[in-house]
Structure formats: structure tokens, C-alpha cells
Amino acid sequence: MAKLRANPSSVTSAVPVYLEPEAEALYREVLAALNDQNFPYAVAGAVALQKYTGIWRATKDLDLFMEVRQVPSALAHLESHGFRCEIPDPVWLSKAHRGDYFVDLISGMSNGVIMVDETWMKRAQPAIVVDIQTRIISPEDLIASKLFVTRRERFDGADIAHIIYRTQGCLEWARILELAGEHWEMLFWSLVLFRYVYPAHGDYVPAPLWQDFLSRYSTLLEQPDSNAPFRGSLVDENMFSVDMKDWGLPDLQADFRSKRLRKQSAPERGANQQRSPLDSQVQGL
Asked: For the whole model, what pTM was predicted?
């Protein structure tokens, strides 16, 4: 079958986008290697979005969600299979490369607010990706993973709206609320956007949830907290850098990330465990 010209990743389309052979081979080998050692992970990103919405998106990477404690062993295993591995950000992101393509091992959000734990793996759903039996992140966890992707360069609010629309709101809303936690306003913002985009389908979001959010928000406006911290850096530390660098407001993202790094202390090493070139990077996890 002739390959279709890939659209930019920001363009949504229901027309299938076929993988380049090199990318497909990389993804297949990584998934097979992780399956071989029974590493718990869940496929996310463009693959999961396609499953739940039918939207195809050109991408040069495959996103795998994994608990941070599993990452060092997974990287060492992939490294032994000839992949070039790195840890660009020990809070949330590691990569396995071959050629121009790569696989991302993601253990949370870059701002340190929402992190992957074993419940994400338990909720993953069986699927076949590049002919490999695997598991895909649940739609609820996929929504949660996109709540803070609100940058100038990339905004995933449309993805959230599309997931709600295409599932007709048949979601475990309690799970999404649980993951949003104290940052429920980010979820509320996404739901307001959904209602604006699809005004005929506001009922895809349960009425009690709308009422709860509206009540909470009304209370916040009526009873403002003068000590509430500035949270712009949790949205985008670049767009709100002026607030911190020039106006003296606190960098809350730095606090969240610091707490995650302290919590993600280096795993204890067995006496006979082989060291790899990634050891110095892994120690930051």
C-alpha cells in the first residue's frame, strides 16, 4: 500500500497515517524487548489518541507510560539490545533512540504535578500495536496526562475535547477528578473548552460534575485566598517567566519538581548488578 504524505503533527485527520519502515521496526523491537522482561508500561500518545478518537497524527516517536521506579531497569535492558538511551529530564522523560526515530518513556508530567503509578498500568487496556500484543493507557488517564500540556508550542485541549466527544462522555469521571486533585481548575478549563466547541453536547459531561465545578468556582470567587500561590509556572514556565524573573513571584513548578526528585531517590543496587553507561543519569531518578 502506498504511504500517505504525513501531515504536520498539529493537523487532525481521520485519514490513516502510515509509519515509515524504520519507525515501525524501532517501535516493534522496543515493545518486544519490554514484553520479553514483562516490564509494566502502557502505550499513550498518538497511538492511544487514535484508538479513542479515530484521529491519526504523524509522529516520530512512540510514547510509553511507565512508573519511574521501572525506568532505570527498562533503559538498561533496551541499552543491552543496542538502543541509544538517554534521560533528558529525570523528573519525567527518558528516551531510546535508533536513527531518526525514538521511543519516549514517560513517568509523569514535566511540571511534576501528575505522576504515573501502578494504577495507570492496572487500568491499561489490551491492544495490538505494530503487530505486538501490548496495552494502551485508559482514556481517563490519557485525559489527565494532557491537562497541563498548555504551552505556546503545543496545546492538548483539543485532544481532551475530542476524547470526550468521541466517547460521548462514557468515562470514569471520578478517576479523572482523582488525578486532577487540587488542580481541578485545569480540568474545569478543559471542560469549558469542550462545551464551547461542542455546545450541543454539554451533556456528555455529567450534570452533577458541572454543578460541582460551578459551585466550587463560585466559592473561590466569593472567598478569595490572599495567600494562594502564583501557579503560572505549572502552566508554562516560559510564557510566565516574566512573573518569576522580573516581578518576583515564586516558581511553584521548581518546588514540585524538586519534591519529585527527592522522592525518586536512586534505587538500591544489588551487589552483582551490572553497571551501564547510563548509571550517572539514572542516579538522578
From this structure: 0.89
